[in-house]
């Protein structure tokens, strides 16, 4: 995600930055944005970099390496600018952004520490663009060792996303991660499965007697799951049945036991864009924020919006 039309995946060396160039949309100064606080209904004005510190602190573990947090900051800044440009939150609340994860990004200023402050400062003004447009700066906790396209991981087809690096090996994403991320098993009660299938597929499959992977995407993720005789989209089913329990659709085994759905898989999240565990491990090996982020995107630039 950096201003170098970055296509290579090779190591660039400790702290070597892909080229960062002035943005065609360059601003004279850091913008002040409007924030809707969903918890209280308050509307406030806040400097963009101050807002980003609260986002980074909420979206990534604040004790992680500064360069991992800084890579997250580049994505958060990009996401924010794309979100503001779209007008999505303004239609809801009359503000640029909100504190809702569903509407904007997670936000928790109480978690800000020196690591987070330094990370945001280190990448001040940096955003990722493709052909002059802000990218959709997706990320997940761990891609399970393989990146996914937006179509495969998110069932996203609304706009083209050619800058998402898909089906790329990412061993850093599963290196030294938590056991429950490296491999996990989830048992979903039959009643919850039926409810999820109804909401996604439109019909009740009845008592759960069989389940199988119907279709996999290029990276090996389940894009279609068959429950009894009903076919459902993998990403949509995961959200409906519980994305905390079903940590990803990178499934390695599917079965039915006692009327319940039992899934085994790896990774945590949709696997599209940056992997946070991958960022952590890359940072620990000395990669720069720009180098870390650039692995997960292709044909992009890192632009500096303001000093």
From TrEMBL:
Superkingdom to which the source organism belongs: Bacteria
GO cellular component: outer membrane-bounded periplasmic space
GO biological process assignments: sporulation resulting in formation of a cellular spore
Domain Sporulation stage II protein D amidase enhancer LytB N-terminal: 41-130
Record InterPro entries: Bact_Sporulation_Assoc, SpoIID/LytB, SpoIID/LytB_N
Cross-referenced Pfam families: SpoIID
Region called Disordered, residue ranges: 198-219
Classification via PANTHER family: AMIDASE ENHANCER (PTHR30032:SF4), N-ACETYLMURAMOYL-L-ALANINE AMIDASE-RELATED (PTHR30032)
Protein known as: SpoIID/LytB domain-containing protein
Species in which this protein is naturally found: Desulforamulus aquiferis
